[in-house]
Every structure is written in C-alpha cells, then in structure tokens.
Amino acid sequence: MSHPLVTVTELASTLQRGGVVRLLDVRWRLDRPDGRPAHREGHLPGAVYVDLDTELARHGDPVEGRHPLPDRADLQAAARRWGIDDGDAVVVYDDLGGQSAARAWWLLRASGLADVRLLDGGFSAWREAGLPLEQGDVVARPGDVTLGDDPWPVIDADEAAAWPRTGVLVDSRAAERYRGDVEPVDPRAGHVPGAVNLPTGGNLDASGRFVDAARLRARFEEAGVGPSTPVAVYCGSGITAAHNALAATIAGFEPVLFAGSWSAWSNDPARPLATGDRPG
Asked: What is the pLDDT of residue 229?
C-alpha cells in the first residue's frame, strides 16, 4: 500500500513528468453539500468531481445513519465513471482539510485499490503554491477498475456498543457535540457510552495539513490506543470518521469504521447515550 498522503510538490512533480494520476475532487460541506459550483470555478487539471452524497453514500433508513456506505457495485460503477482503471494511482482532495475526501480515500482503499492518496492541504495548498487550475466540467473516459470483494473493515451499532470493553471507540466530532452541549443535526445529543473524544481538527496543523506520524500516534496513545488495541472510529454520519481512520493509519494502527455513527445510534431510541466530557 502507498503512503496515505501526497504533498502538492510531489503530485505536481509526478504530473509534470507525465505520470498518470486519477484526480478526484471531493469538495463537500455539511452546509454546502454540492461542490459542483466550486469545481467548475476551478479545480486541479483533469480532476473529476465526485458527489459524496450520491456516489460515496446511499439513501437508507434513519437507523443506518445519514450517509450509509454505498453498495459495492454502485461504487465500482462510479469509480469507472471517474475514469479509474485497474492499477491506477488515485489522488483525492477537498477544501476542508481532508474531512470529506477522506471518505473517498477510505472507501477505495478498503475496496482493494493499492495506490490511493489524499492531497495534504487539499485545494488550498495547490492554489497557494501557484499551480495551474482548470475550469468547467470534466467527463472522464470510462475506466475498467474492478473493486475487491473483501469485507470492508466496519462494525455495526451492536459491535460499537460492546467495543469499549475490549478496545477503544473514538468519537471524531467536536467536543461540544461529544459532550452533548449541542446537537445541530441528529435526533439526540451525547455520545456512545464508553467512547473517547478525538476531534478530527487535532489531526491538522494551522495550515490545514496533517501533523506528522509521531504526533498522530501520540494522540491515539493518549486516548488509550496501544500496538495491539482494537480501535474503531465514528463521527456524526460516517464522513469525518474516515479522517480519523486516515490519521490512525498514518500513526500505524488498523482502525475499523462504525459507518452508521452517531446519526444511526441516535435514531434508535433503544440505544443509551452518555453526556459530558467522560466516556460514561
């Protein structure tokens, strides 16, 4: 497997040498989910826009969460629309510190693609480096990639409930949502009992780039993760949890994803919840 990150310098050098890289623009925000206008205004040359809501997720019942994982056949069809062939190098990016692009990174890596990386610093770092941009829509030549059929490294709500007894369950949301002080989106406020809080913002430095592997490892170790500790991550709807999955991977751990996350948990009134700054 390739390293999960690539810098703008490394990517630009590869492209200038004529290297073939499939670029995926995964711009999405909770308050502005459609990133197409931003993509049309300017994107990395050749980058294909990826719709997170419809291509990296599917619609489901509330107890599945707001962004259930897509069916694998649908994801493969989308990856072929993006122009990915078997063996291609893929780079994903956004303008949110990797918070949305990490979902594409996680799905493609979990589906067997060996060379998938997230652009460290994203669109902002590329633009700030004065590198070329392109405008308009990009329609890729259809690819022929075949995704693997190994099970994705995910757990369901029952497994998440039991996880803190033998491992570390990481809540990736902001501290105020973990504590239950506020809940702007989901039905109930709080966190899964036993979960510890590691907000994804702590994975980044002031420039929006990932801190180094040693600092990421220290974050997870302080939360109780050791070399043989099972670690699972969740967030509000399973999107930004992939950011902590990426951080944990850089740190040398092998995380699994509670894909339904808090949106699934809080939609089931039978599930208990904890509040405050302790796991509960």
From this structure: 96
Tokens of 174: 């902001």
Q: Is 235 one of the catalytic residues?
A: yes
Task: From the candidates 157, 161, 235, 242, give the one annotated as an active-site residue.
Answer: 235
* Residues 42 and 134: beta-carbon distance below 8 Å: yes
pLDDT in tens, 255-272: 999 999 999 999 999 999
Pairwise CA distance, residues 101 & 49, whole Å: 11
Q: How far is CA 150 from the centre of its chain?
A: 19
